Amino acid sequence: MKKIFLAVLVLGPMSYGQNAQRKDTAGTKQLDDIVVTASRGASLRREVPVAISKISQKSINETKATTVSEIINKAPGVLMVNLGNEQHMMAIRQPMNTNAYYLYLEDGLPIRPMGIFNHNALLEINQFNLQNIEVVKGPVSSLYGPEAVGGAINLISLKPSLEPELKLGIQADGFGYKRFQAAGGTTIGKLGFYVAGLSSLQKDSWMTFSDYNKDNINARVDYAISPRTRLTSTLFYGKYYSDMTGSVNESDFYNRTYKSTTDFTYRKSDALRSKITLEQDWNEKAHTSFTVFTRNNKLGQNPSYGIRWTPGQTTAKGEINSNNFKSYGVIGQHNQSFRFWQSTLVAGGLFDYSPVDYNAYQIDLKANLNPGGQTVSSYEIIAERPDIKLADYEARIYNKAGFVQLSCKPLQEVTLTAGARYDDMSLDYTNTIDQSSGDKKYDQFTFKWGANYNPLDFAGFYGNYSQGFSPPGLTSVFRAKPGTGGNTGNPAAFYYNLEPAKFDNYEVGGWLHFLQHKLSIEYSLYYMEGENELLNIRQPDNSTDYQSAGKTRHKGIEFALQYCMNEQWKFRIGGTTAQHTFVDFRVSDKPSDPIRDLNGFEMPSAPKWTGNSELNYYPKWLPDFRASIECQMTSSWFEDQVNTVKYNGYTVFNTRMGYRWKGIECYVNVMNLTDKLYAYNVTKGNTATAAPSYTAAAPRTFVFGLQYSLSLKNKAKIL
């Protein structure tokens, strides 16, 4: 335990960035790494009974990504779906969806409060401020609370360097994308600081109406009050505005016309986050941290996904909405080590107060049809209708939680872990549309237990049982049901009775090392049952009806293989095979509907195979040169819930090259090397006449960049 305590002393329980003894030569994940997300404190990966992937700073730096998805998709079992302009959705032990089943963390703190999930939360992230990324797969609700069901992604930021450092970079592609970025910091006596910023701009891309701009800045200040007491303060501010192209119809997709049906939809975000953490080392076995944090987010949209159109009609409906919230919260945590069985106890609590207001109103649209009348060529705004409200509420959310986790080693080869958490999310609300007010409460105990068994130097095993839950988001609860409210003639009805989704996850896995650790294999097998999952029932006009009834089943195998052939050649492959099934789910009570329940059907947007592999080359004959080729594979999936139509999936190749000379690095990435025609996602309504919608991927794209890095530790060098 002394080794772990020293890591905690250096990092603090909510600070990150150091590895254990083995050097990460290929940017891959080693079992000697110290990870924090799985235990809210520093632990060896081989001693935490979960599937966790760590993406190193070396891998992040060499990827030179334009979107975070390019980095996160390197983690086995993860598919982050690119929706364009850094918008995204996720698939970790779930189908590709926008449900609140993933927890996005920034240095261990959730980016959003419970109840205000946003599947696009990672578009706020500054890639130039990342030390590493940890991805935990499966529920971690017992430590981090609701929404950590499919998994948790912890983006760990850079901390101040001991010597002055500076990084400057520019990046551009052949389709009008440009990014400027800068970062730097140092430590002077007891005070250290680090600042990183970027500005991205997209103009006149391959897809019509797809411009966007993004400006982010991160700042961190560390102050060592004494050798045992530290103060850390961070600040983030970001602005984002994007045209929202939406999907394209089948004809335009296969003809590669890439024409947006709108020229008025948009998404904009204004986000401010700050926190101050005080850490105290009482002795070699006791550590306490206390964090005060705030959030202030404003999100406005005229969303393309909100357009509701019935095939053959020349009119349609859309919406304009805004979602604004502030948060004020505290989180305290204590880590205590004991000699008995080398035990470690983590205990803490959270209080988060988040007032939120949301409103959405209808816009009337004209639909210009393509020949045949089954698809739309373009939409035009006829009128904005603030008098027809789709949602209009204010709420005050109170999130309270307490958590505890104990790990011990009764035998040198065995580590046992058990944890529990109680979450209480309560809110009081005023719903302007039905002139109602009241309060709601969602609370839940979640548990986990697991064991690691490492009997040999080259092999180890783990098993765990974990629970997860996710309350319905407020935007679902307070949205008028299709066919009610507005000018429908029916009183507005809402989803007040939606229930929290609950999950039970059973998992086993292990690792193997061969050839003096040159060859590493990791695997995990999971079986997860879901109850009351929030599922979206697509209506004929593309509107959505929500249900939280029935059961689902998720099972799969995740695997990763890494082979360091020699100092020049490194290879990795990782992926998952999974099956996501409706077990008991009813979608209709109408006798006229041919399919009224989905029992035994596969869930839509659920590929059975996904994988990412990469071959890296670092030639001895040309030092400081690197080259790699990457393959991203996604198998076929059903486009609709009733399992009538499949999209074939895709296999796409990317290549990256870079050369460093002193403090200057130039690089080129070629994305979609073979210029393959493919879509990140394809969905279709359940009716026979429904037309599929394609989220088109970019054609072959050349990305060029230049970066200058200066460190005064020795001489100029690339970080």
| Helical percentage | under 10%
Radius of gyration, in Å, reads 25 Å
Quaternary organization: single chain
What is the H level of CATH, i.e. the homologous superfamily?
Answer: TonB-dependent receptor, beta-barrel domain
Global shape: globular
- Overall number of structural domains: 1
How much strand?
over 45%
Q: Predict the CATH topology.
A: Maltoporin, Chain A
Largest sheet: 22 strands, antiparallel, barrel
Q: Residue ranges: pLDDT <50 for 5 or more in a row?
A: 1-29, 714-719
Mean pLDDT: 88
Number of helical elements: 6
SS-derived structural category: mainly beta
CATH architecture: Beta Barrel
Give the termini distance in whole angstroms. Answer: 31 Å
Q: Count of DSSP E strands?
A: 37
CATH class: Mainly Beta
Could you characterize the architecture of this molecule?
Keywords: Cell outer membrane, Ion transport, Iron, Iron transport, Membrane, Receptor, TonB box, Transmembrane, Transmembrane beta strand, Transport. It is found in: Cell outer membrane. It is a multi-pass membrane protein. This is TonB-dependent receptor. It is built from 6 helices and 37 strands. The chain is mainly beta and about 725 residues long. The strands form 7 sheets. The protein has a 22-stranded antiparallel beta barrel. Strands 3-8-9-6-7 form a 5-stranded mixed β-sheet. Strand 20 (about 415-430) and strand 21 form a beta hairpin. The chain starts with a helix and ends in an 8-residue tail after the last strand.
